[in-house]
Here is the input.
Amino acid sequence: MLSENLLLIAPWAVLILYCGIVWLFSPRGVSAQQFFKGSSNAGTSPALWVLVFSAAISWIFAKSIANAANLGQAFGIAGGIGYATYYLSFVVAAVAIYFIRVKGGFGSLASFLIAKYGAVCARLFLITIGIRLFNEVWSNTKVAAQYFGPEGSGAYWVAAFAVTAFTMFYAWRGGLRSSLLTDAGQMLLAAVLLVVVLVAVFPPLMERGLPEVPDTVHWAGITFIALAAVQVLSYPFHDPVLTDRGFLTKPGVMVKGFLLAGLLSGVFILMFSAVGLYARAEGLNGAATVAVPMAFGLPLLLVFNAIMLTSAGSTLDSTFASTAKLAAIDWPDRRSEPKARERSLGRWAMLTIALFGNLPLLTIYMADGIGPAVIAATTISGTMVMGLAPIFLLSFLPSAGPASFHMAFWPGLLFGVLITVESATGMSIFPAWIDLGSGKYADYLGVNVYGLLICTSGYLLGALLFGRRSAVATPTTGI
Here is the structure.
């Protein structure tokens, strides 16, 4: 009876402790400039290691941690390597944003897109990243709340609300400045907790050796690695949590910070996949992030609870800050220094996404089977934005303009929608010959490879056929 009571009460004690630690790092009051640009009280840009810790922990999503463990459980070490491959996005983003800033002198991706491709194309891009931000809310609160009770239980919903409300509270006060400062504490806390987890799972895992997987499973994992390697060419550009941080410091500092953050977060994810390897080696059933701590007992379960709260909170506050910037700065394309009016608008945008961002969780109970399918489908959003790769990486072509944007963007979106429908319904939309590799991700890999070739060809064709008529006058930009 005592252990059952502890199991019910202890997670709430962890939540209270987590809130107290984050509160210590949260600034009490900030200007509009600090709210949107994260600058210090003296007006200086964030320091290198503040940028590194913030970018790293903001990309160690609660959902990503769960995925890394589950992929390690499903495919062995190849699953962990595959998910860590996504963190090469930091390299792609660093290079692209460096040239956007240095060659073109732009202060945001939105202003670059307006100058290069026009306002309509920029708005399409902003709508795309708005959908991404929306998905970040529920996908992170869902993972964090599952440690407080079964899905649908009162404790589950209270936890989802509490995590969202607390994060919203300190993000409302400080915006990006709050996000940067709390991220530093969250990164340090996550690192300590990771060490605790590895101390628990590594000795028995090393004693048994890495779990063996059948050849078919191994090659399915290799296919997933290839899929991640293709998607990193476009994936980073639809995540403002990452790209907004590319404009906070000097370009050279940004590149160094992104490379360090990518290494730090990628290694974190790869090491955490050991949880999935342990689950596979021990033959544990169910999600690795729940099954493994349950096997060790309450102390490790609370450590996992704290890790999920830390990663979810760090991503949520960044999501709220990016939402504020999108609504108040990027959408109206404000180039002047932000004022109190923009800060007020940004705060209301944050509150809106906080309220509506958790609604997808309700679909699980509103219709049999539809909710889980919709939630599973959102994990392939990287396919929908494959057209962003040529839009950013080939923007040095002077003749590329609105036509190139549309001829790259829409085919990618179409492929993404079709594969989402296929995943959600079980229908076979794409022919078997499109598959590349083996296993469940062969279809995804084929769609992404052929789709990226089509998007890139469309981009080049648009520049060739319509360049003189559609190219927008712009400063020299190169990537």
In short: The CA atoms of residues 395 and 478 lie 6 Å apart. The chain has 22 helices and no strands.
